[in-house]
Write a structure and sequence with these properties.
This protein is of the alpha+beta class and about 350 residues long. The protein has three domains: about 1-110, Rossmann fold; about 120-135 and about 215-345, ATP-grasp fold, B domain (D-amino Acid Aminotransferase, Chain A, domain 1, 2-Layer Sandwich), CATH 3.30.470.20; about 140-215, Dna Ligase, domain 1 (2-Layer Sandwich). Helices cover about 30% and strands about 30% of the residues. The chain has helices spanning about 15-25, 75-80, 95-105, 115-120, 125-130, 160-170, 195-205, 250-255, 270-285, 320-325, 330-345, and strands spanning about 1-10, 35-40, 45-50, 70, 85, 110, 140-145, 150, 155, 175-180, 190, 210-215, 220-230, 230-240, 260, 290-295, 305-310. The strands form three sheets. Strands 4-3-2-1-5-6 form a six-stranded mixed β-sheet, sandwiched between helices. It is globular. It starts with a strand and ends with a helix. The model has no long low-confidence stretch (mean pLDDT about 90).
Length: about 350
């Protein structure tokens, strides 16, 4: 099978995408697949990565591919492949943009469909939908910057009015997040008004739609979802033990003190509830293929859904492949399942 692995791109998760793709290429069965790594630079120009695939190993964060050959007609080129493995996190990848193009060109690909990807990439839309379907999430407010004004609850208002509304409805500490971003990029914690203003300004550098959540005191747990054989399956539940105050970008990819525990040391009833909610959320949002779903578990056993990742990290330390390995599906077999299920479509 001729398989193109598409990675990189213009999102602020470019470097994570590179490491994920390297891990995928390393773990793909070279006897089953004729693999072509295709790298998108930060301007979204397409390049063949001409490195011997047998020598590709996961790189340190920030190290980028060399030995590149520019592709002048990228989408005509992609039509020559039996399947495209989309491993572009964030903008133009996880948000369904490239999936839309591949759908239009009738090119089979690994990844979620365009519409649910677009919706789920937006944390505000996702929380609204989950809450409407009785899936508990953290208490939250949201607003957007529209040209030179701010929109809150459907009304135009000043920044000070936005802050006033947030403070009336939420209590410190709070987390501020860009609606459309992953790998915890642009996420900030606020313990007071000054920190809230600063965190919002930082988040606005990443996105114009901003989510503010009241902090949940609880354990950080994750569950991996895989669709195969017409069934939605949930992995064992894993726990994140962040080295920082929260699981920031640096804590995920740069700080070796962050740890994961698989399976999480939690009650069987809590584990079952998390897995059931993960599958339910996956289906409510009309997702397909795979996703990683993150939760909080409070001391009084409340399960609170935090985020959904439709193209989760695939590095060798990423929770998605590690969760499935602990559940009994090797990294290579996991990749096979994803490719086979998408080829059938």
């Amino acid at each position: 099978m001729k398989l193109a692995v598409l990675f990189g791109g213009s999102s602020n998760e470019h470097e994570v995408s590179v490491i994920s793709a390297c891990s995928i290429i390393k773990n793909l069965d070279k006897n089953k697949y004729d693999i072509t790594p295709i790298y998108l630079d930060k301007k979204d120009d397409f390049y063949f990565w001409r490195k011997d695939i047998n020598e590709i190993e996961p790189m340190e964060i920030g190290v980028l591919p060399t030995s590149l050959e520019k592709i002048e007609e990228p989408f005509l080129t992609l039509k020559n492949y039996d399947c495209v493995f989309l491993m572009i996190h964030g903008k133009n990848g996880e948000d369904g943009i490239l999936a839309s193009i591949l759908e239009f060109l009738h090119i089979p690909y690994v990844g979620n469909k365009p519409a649910p990807s677009i919706i789920t990439m937006d944390k505000i839309y996702t929380k609204d939908i989950l809450e409407c379907n009785h899936i508990k999430t953290s208490k939250y407010q949201s607003f957007m910057k529209y040209n030179d004004t701010y929109m809150y609850d459907g009304k135009s208002c000043s920044f000070d009015e936005v802050l006033k509304q947030i403070l009336e409805k939420l209590s410190f500490p709070m987390f501020v997040k860009p609606a459309n971003s992953g790998s915890s990029i642009g996420v900030g914690k606020a313990n007071d008004l000054k920190e809230l203003e600063k965190a919002i300004q930082e988040a606005l550098r990443v996105d114009e739609r901003i989510l503010i959540e009241e902090m949940i005191v609880g354990r950080e747990l994750e569950c991996a979802i895989l669709e195969r054989g017409g069934k939605v399956e949930a992995s064992l539940v894993g726990e994140v033990l962040a080295s920082d105050d929260f699981y920031s970008f640096d804590a995920k990819y740069k700080n070796s003190e962050s740890k994961t525990v698989i399976p999480a040391n939690i009650d069987e009833e809590d584990s079952r509830e998390i897995r059931d909610i993960a599958k339910k959320a996956f289906q409510i949002l009309n997702l397909h293929g795979y996703s990683r779903i993150d939760f909080f578990l409070t001391s009084d056993h409340q399960v609170i859904l935090n985020e959904i990742n439709t193209i989760p990290g695939f590095t060798e330390i990423s929770m998605y492949p590690k969760l499935w390995e602990a559940t009994g599906v090797s990294y290579s077999n996991l990749l096979d399942s994803l490719i086979v299920e998408n080829i059938k479509k």
